[in-house]
Every structure is written in C-alpha cells, then in structure tokens.
From TrEMBL:
The organism of origin for this protein: Hallella multisaccharivorax DSM 17128
Domain of life (superkingdom): Bacteria
Start and end residues of each Thioredoxin domain: 248-390
Protein name: Alkyl hydroperoxide reductase/ Thiol specific antioxidant/ Mal allergen
A biological process from GO: cytochrome complex assembly
Leader sequence segment: 1-19
Entry's Gene Ontology cellular component terms: cell envelope
Keywords of this entry: Cytochrome c-type biogenesis, Disulfide bond, Redox-active center, Signal
Cell compartment(s), UniProt: Cell envelope
Major location (coarse): other
Stored Gene3D superfamilies: Glutaredoxin
C-alpha cells in the first residue's frame, strides 16, 4: 500500500521535482574560471537555456538534462576573464539529447577545442538517440569540415575583393561542390537510418529549405522517416506539415499571384509567362544592395539567352514611388511589376520570400526548376541546358 501511494505521488510531482538525468563530464585542462551552459537550440529563433555549471578544479562538471523528447543541444564553454571584466566563448559541443538516460563525456582541452570534438571526445550513454547521433557525427565529420573550410575560404575572399566574383570563381565552384557532396552524404545516411532520431533531425532541417529538393523526393523522405521514428515529436510535425512541403518543392507548377504594372493596372503573373520558354523571375527592392548588384548580371543573362528566356522583375518595395525611381535608374529592358501591400502577402507565401534577391527559374513546362539568390547559379543552369535544334 505504501509503495503504491509513493508511486502515485511520483506521478503527481511536476517534472522539475522528479529525478532528472544528467550529463557528467571531465575535461582535463579546463580551469575553474570556465562556466558551461546547456541550451536547447532546436528552434534557432528561441534558444532555451536548460542548465549551467562551474568547472571544478579537476575539470569536471555536471548538467541536468530536463528533456522528454529528442532535441538538438549545445554545450557551450565560456572563459571568465576577471581582469578584463568579460567572458568569451571557448568551444561548443552539439549533441542530440532526449533526457532518457545519463550521459558521460571525457577528454582534454586539445580534443574539446579541436574541429572534430564530437568525434574525438569520449561520449557515452544517452540512450538510442545520442548513440544514433554520434554514429552520424562519425560518418559526416570529415566532409562537414571540408564543406565548412570551402565556405570560409569563399567568404574570406569575398571581402578581400568586395564581391568581384571573377577573382574567386574557382572558390565558389569548390564551395558548391563540397556542399553538394555533404548534402549527398547526409541523404545516404538519412535513407539508411530512417527510423533514427538523427534522420528526423536532418529531414527537419530540410523542411525549412524551400525549393531545394524535388516534390516526389521530399514526399518519399517524409513517408520513410515518419513511418517508425524514435523522434516521434519531429516525425509527427513533418507528417502534419507534409502538404506545406509539397507546395514549396522543386518541380511544382509555378504559383500565380497578382501584381501592379508600370501603367498602374493589376495583372495576373501567369499572363506574363509564355509557354515553351524559360522565365526568370527576380524579386527585388530599391533599398536592397545585393539586389541592385545582381541586376547587371541578370542583364547579361537576358542578353545571352535572348530568344528563349523571358525575364520579369517583381519589386517588393513598400512605397510605389521608390520602385518607380529605382526601375528608371536601372533601365531593365524587360517586364517590371510591383507588389502593393495586399498583393505582397500572396506572392511572399507562395514563393517563400524571406530574403531578397530571390531568383526563380520557371521551365518551358511552367514548373519551378531552380530558386536561388545567386544570378551566377542561374546563368550556369541556363548554360547547361542544350539549345533546341531547329530542323527548318
């Protein structure tokens, strides 16, 4: 009777008062002036602090893991510089945790500060969720580093040459190649471990990468990963939002919307997309520096692809006067449209316009073939498409 009463009381206690699993670590070489923070970073827009701890003299610390479902967590190490009155970040370890079992982590500062820390530190426990994530990390670490290095090299050279891509085109190609290889490796792993929480995490990130993957491929991945996944919360989210993903995938018929012409009249975008031709849509604004910088490149594409390419520029300026002034300055020899406040919402949702420039390539069958912010990618895509043969 007493045992039954105790069990009932445990069920009634709030989670914060029940026994929680913890992450215990010992990192040789860490000083007592280091503070460690555990954060749930699953939602990058709302990072949740879970626990923090001071490092002991022997480099040890312990953190509570108050989770009930798999969540991506960062273990961040901050150095407290009392002399300068500030703190600075030393390192971050990213782990997929679910709070179902204790976790232990051992190593030294050389491993902690190294580029492959999730791979070189000795991490154990954490149940199937963490085991699957570590398996994935060991598989992907080398390629992730190659992709990161290529991206860093391209970004560094960008600032050296103030965006003159002709100076570092080889680095751009290398970055894209390594990113594509990383994406391919992630796909292979996800398809081979579809029931793991790590697979749900990978696919969950792809959910937010609109117009990146073909519709049928996304449907296949969602069906496979949600069938029997350890991360039931994320799998359920993907399953619930399957229809939304299908409307933001490559290969779908282009969504229609209304816009305003230079003559001040409302027009359906679909009336400006001729059949049998490629159409390049450029969502831009007068105040957007990268948008204005891309226009000369779009002019070049238009000139070299004349005859088989239709171009339409669509301004998202808040004020019509700003659009008209910028449009005259740029003197673009193709159709110009502006989205007023009522029209903007429909177009922004249909094409997932979260940043600009947003370039959309529609193929001759009226389906979305490529979406990017980079006019060079559009140019490369069009150059790779064979010219039709005229037998007359």
């Amino acid at each position: 009777m007493i045992k039954q009463a105790f069990s009932l009381l445990a069920l009634l206690l709030p989670l914060s008062m029940q026994a929680q699993h913890k992450l215990s670590a010992q990192i040789a070489g860490l000083g007592t002036d280091v503070t460690v923070f555990l954060s749930n970073v699953d939602n990058p827009d709302k990072v949740e602090s879970l626990d923090s701890a001071k490092v002991a003299a022997d480099g040890s610390f312990s953190l509570r893991v108050p989770l009930k479902k798999p969540r991506m967590c960062n273990i961040t190490f901050w150095q407290n510089d009392k002399a300068k009155g500030r703190s600075y970040k030393l390192s971050t370890v990213s782990l997929l945790l679910d709070g179902t079992a204790d976790v232990t982590m051992k190593g030294d500062t050389t491993q902690l500060f190294g580029p492959e820390r999730e791979k070189t530190l000795t991490i154990s426990g954490g149940g199937e969720t963490l085991a699957g994530w570590l398996l994935y990390e060991h598989y992907i670490t080398d390629q992730q580093k190659r992709a990161d290095d290529a991206s860093y090299a391209e970004a560094s050279t960008y600032f050296e040459h103030l965006g003159d891509r002709s100076k570092y085109r080889d680095l751009i190609i290398a970055k894209d190649r390594e990113a594509a290889r990383l994406d391919s490796m992630q796909t292979v792993w996800m398809e081979g471990h579809a029931s793991s929480a790590a697979a749900a995490y990978i696919l969950g990130k792809r959910y937010y990468q609109s117009f990146t993957y073909p519709k049928d491929i996304m449907a296949k991945w969602i069906d496979e990963v949600t069938a029997d996944n350890a991360d039931t919360a994320r799998a359920s989210f993907l399953k619930r939002n399957r229809d939304i993903v299908m409307t933001l995938s490559l290969g779908i018929p282009f969504p229609d919307f209304s816009a305003t012409t230079k003559a001040g009249k409302a027009v359906k975008f679909s009336t400006l997309v001729p059949k049998g031709k490629y159409t390049l849509v450029d969502f831009w604004a007068s105040w957007c520096g990268p948008c204005r910088a891309a226009i000369p490149k779009v002019k070049k594409i238009y000139a070299t692809q004349k005859g088989r390419l239709n171009v339409v520029s669509v301004s998202v300026d808040q004020r019509e006067a700003d659009w008209r002034r910028a449009e005259k300055q740029e003197a673009m020899p193709w159709t110009q449209l502006w989205l007023n406040k009522a029209q903007l919402n429909r177009a922004a949702l249909a094409y997932d316009i979260q940043s600009i420039p947003r370039l959309v390539l529609i193929n001759p069958e009226g389906k979305i073939q490529l979406v990017s912010f980079d006019p060079d990618k559009m140019e490369a895509a069009l150059h790779s498409i064979p010219q039709p043969i005229n037998f007359e």
